[in-house]
TrEMBL record:
Top-rank taxon, per record: Bacteria
Source organism phylogeny: Bacteria, Bacillati, Bacillota, Bacilli, Bacillales
Species the sequence originates in: Staphylococcus epidermidis (strain ATCC 12228 / FDA PCI 1200)
Domain YdbS-like PH stretches: 67-140, 259-345, 412-492
Parts of the chain that traverse the membrane: 12-33, 45-64, 187-211, 231-256, 370-388, 394-413
Keyword line: Coiled coil, Membrane, Transmembrane, Transmembrane helix
UniProt feature coiled coil, ranges: 135-163
Protein name: YdbS-like PH domain-containing protein
A Pfam family that the UniProt record links to this protein: bPH_2
Matches recorded under InterPro entries: UCP026631, YdbS-like_PH
Length: 501
């Protein structure tokens, strides 16, 4: 590890696969249209030739980049050099490294290769494919160096403070143990209640759109017409069929993605492992925790299940495939009974109490959620009625109805509460409920906004800001009682912080 190391040879195949994936739709279209290819027409070779040239350039670029990549440890730094025309050298201070994550695709599982991602609070290194043994050696060596550096710091602190000689500075390693394993039955239930239809639509729509010219839609329509005699039933049948297929495919995709999900505690880190064809190993440093989020859809609420996310700080972009919705928000418990969820996370963050929010927002703010949007939509509907037909006004009623339902849910299920050192904010939307738990010392700022109409109604909006990844997360509510917002302000201003009015 202390001399330049090369990537695993499978990295060259990974480069080929990445080029194929980036041009997948184009390749599929070409293969389905090859039967109409005119071999005696020179102009027919132009587009395939351009495609082949682009494909070759991308593949050669990846080959050279893999060939030039080297990594090693030099003193207290992890060094990576890479590049095609311009060599790039990146050095990470090992004492700043907070996690080393791995990703193992299907081919890598066969040949024993892994992709290693090393993260620090301000930067990171994403290696190509190396052997699993190399990955383990790197992690062990990095941990060994960090322990040695920590011992040196502790020894210096001990020498400067002799009166505290009885204090133990060295942290004793605790054995790893699994704090959560998702059984298959629970995984299946999660997949069936996790927006599988939307996932399938997003994944399959581009592919189906690209293949629409080769799919025999006319023959398919004739078969349906022979069963259903009216266009009304044909449309209903097609919609139900598409939704059903999307639901089944989306459920299977969730099963594959989160197969074998488990969370392992290793001192102040959590190691998340999951995946069937692509195995992921994600490390979450709990000492960089900024806040906790409970995300619960109304469907899961009916069955008593929920999910838990952590907000952490890290300036490196989120790695593709991580169980995260955005940079800095990492899913810890994707699907678990709500009562069990807090039994699991309380030992992980013993400084937090996870109090209940006092739900229920002022009724005088109810109409403000939908009044102005509804007026705008009705205006558009009237214009459509005048220009087109009455159906424009009828269609406009649907989003108005959604705004009205949202106002009911927001007013009924939103709220907040705070103790001396902790804040909880519960915010409802039309699909889910989010509960934010934040320690007071993690709050970076507070904003209170109030226009004249809100001031007359004794209402105000508030937002707290915490760090999240390389950016920030806003946590707040609209149309709260002014007295309650002022209590929040007084609670917040007791600390060494700033507030904007």
């Amino acid at each position: 590890m202390y001399s330049p190391q090369k990537l695993h040879p499978i990295s060259y195949i990974d480069g080929l696969i990445s080029v194929i994936k980036s041009n997948f739709i184009v390749i599929i279209i070409f293969l389905f249209n090859i039967k109409d290819f005119k071999y005696d027409d020179f102009s027919s070779y132009i587009i395939p030739g351009i495609m082949t040239l682009i494909f070759s350039i991308g593949f050669i670029h990846n080959i050279i980049k893999v060939y030039n990549t080297r990594y090693w440890i030099e003193e207290d730094h992890f060094i990576l050099t890479t590049g095609v025309f311009n060599k790039e050298r990146k050095e990470l201070n090992i004492s700043r490294i907070q996690s080393a994550d791995t990703s193992q695709g299907l081919i890598n599982q066969i040949v024993g290769g892994v992709e290693l991602i090393i993260k620090t609070p301000s930067d990171g290194i994403e290696l190509g494919t190396i052997s699993k043994k190399q990955s383990e050696v790197i992690e062990q060596e990095l941990r060994s160096i960090q322990e040695r550096m920590n011992n040196q710091v502790n020894q210096e602190a001990k020498e400067l403070n002799d009166e505290n000689h009885t204090q133990t500075y060295q942290q004793h390693a605790k054995p790893q143990y699994a704090i959560f394993k998702m059984p298959f039955k629970q995984l299946l239930f999660m997949s069936m209640t996790s927006g599988a239809i939307a996932l399938a639509f997003v994944t399959l729509s581009p592919i189906i759109g690209s293949l629409s010219s080769v799919i025999p839609w006319d023959k398919f329509g004739e078969e349906i017409s022979s069963v259903f005699k009216t266009i009304y039933f044909i449309v209903i049948f097609i919609v139900i069929l598409v939704l059903l297929l999307s639901y089944i495919i989306g459920t299977i995709m969730y099963l594959i993605k989160f197969y074998g999900y488990q969370v392992i505690q290793d001192n102040h880190q959590l190691k998340i492992q999951y995946g069937l064809f692509t195995k992921k190993n994600i490390t979450v440093p709990t000492d960089r925790l900024q806040g906790v989020l409970e995300h619960q859809s109304f469907i899961r609420k009916l069955f008593g299940y929920t999910s838990i996310h952590f907000y952490i700080t890290s300036d490196i972009d989120t790695t593709e495939g991580e169980p995260t919705d955005n940079d800095g928000r990492i899913m810890i418990l994707p699907f678990i009974p709500r009562k069990e969820a807090y039994k699991v996370i309380r030992p992980l963050v013993p400084e937090m109490t996870f109090n209940h929010a006092k739900i229920g927002m002022p009724l005088k703010g109810f109409h403000r959620h939908f009044l102005i949007p509804s007026i705008c939509i009705i205006g558009i509907g009237i214009i459509g009625w005048y220009m087109w037909s009455l159906w424009s006004l009828i269609i406009a009623l649907l989003p108005i109805l959604l705004f009205f339902v949202y106002a009911i849910l927001y007013t009924r299920f939103s709220g907040f509460a705070f103790s001396e050192s902790e804040l909880v904010v519960q915010k409802a939307s039309i699909l889910n409920i989010k509960r934010f738990y934040v320690k007071k010392e993690k709050v970076l700022g507070m904003t209170i906004s109030q226009h004249p109409f809100l001031e007359r109604s004794q209402l105000a909006n508030f937002q707290f800001v915490i760090a999240k990844g390389s950016s920030q997360q806003n946590i707040g509510l609209k149309f709260s009682e002014v007295d309650n917002v002022l209590k929040l302000k007084n609670w917040y201003m007791k600390g060494d912080t700033h507030e904007v009015l």
